[in-house]
Design brief:
alpha/beta; seven-stranded mixed β-sheet; 10 helices; globular
Length: about 260
């Protein structure tokens, strides 16, 4: 395998989102969205639970019939690294009266602990794919993509190779942002706000930055918990960037418009 071919890492788990009312999505819908992402011609490590495994493999075989470029890792949610380290503490915080009084927006990251656990675990899925994969260990670049990151324009992705590695800055972590304004005047208020700067749907991590990113993510979760609050994975990544901007590259775009930057 060519070390310079990137590995896309993704995941799909049932966290009850089909029962969340205004913020809900059915898992049938997620699997339909995921078909688009699965159609990219690339190496891919997919984390999921047993109930979705066969459907995901069937959809992936459209572009990778013999699954030579695909590794499916079936685990339970309780095996998430982030859940094992912070599950009890975050659940206790989010269910506390003090935290509920501080909530400014009744969004999933403020009301649904498992929403945070699966999103906080993104870099730990990448870390596992890098160091514990049976198929694609230690590639040069790992790319996170949400399972439902692409929702239209199927022709852009179907059987297309992505990214063009010649266009990727391998000296930095690459984030996609909606605004290049990096100002965070108050960490606690930023975590409670909806002012997310970095988009969590996709980001690029050269392998030599994976352990650094995972360590920084843990540090920022602890920082949030010490303040008595929590925020989305995007807010945690905002804090990582603000601490070490020299290690990060930001590309400005709208939601889910990541493909254009590194296409062939």
């Amino acid at each position: 395998m060519d070390l310079n071919r990137a590995v896309i890492v993704t995941a799909l788990f049932d966290i009850g989102r089909d029962k969340w009312g205004a913020f809900g999505h059915s898992y049938h819908t997620y699997l339909e969205y995921m078909k688009i992402m699965l159609s990219i011609d690339c190496y891919m490590v997919i984390y999921t639970e047993q109930q979705f495994a066969q459907k995901i493999l069937k959809n992936r075989q459209v572009v990778d019939p013999k699954l030579k470029k695909t590794e499916l890792k079936v685990i339970t949610k309780e095996q998430f690294e982030i859940y094992k380290k912070f599950g009890n503490e975050i659940t206790k915080l989010m269910s506390s009266d003090d935290f509920k009084k501080q909530i400014q927006f009744h969004v999933p990251e403020m009301t649904q602990p498992w929403y945070n656990f699966v999103n906080f675990n993104k870099i730990f899925f990448i870390k596992d794919a890098c160091f514990n994969s049976n198929r694609f260990p230690k590639r040069n670049l790992y790319i996170w993509k949400d399972a439902g990151v692409y929702r239209s324009e199927k022709h852009l992705y179907h059987k297309r190779i992505w990214p063009d590695m010649k266009k990727v800055d391998m000296s930095k972590i690459t984030f996609f942002v909606r605004s290049t304004n990096d100002n965070i005047p108050d960490v606690k208020q930023h975590l409670l706000s909806q002012d997310r700067k970095i988009q969590g749907g996709s980001f690029l991590v050269p392998s030599h930055y994976i352990e650094y990113f995972a360590d920084e993510f843990e540090k920022q979760i602890k920082r949030a918990l010490n303040l008595g609050v929590i925020g989305s994975d995007e807010k945690i990544m905002d804090l990582i960037y603000s601490n070490n901007p020299e290690f990060c590259n930001k590309l400005e775009c709208e939601w889910r418009q990541y493909w254009k930057f590194f296409k062939y």
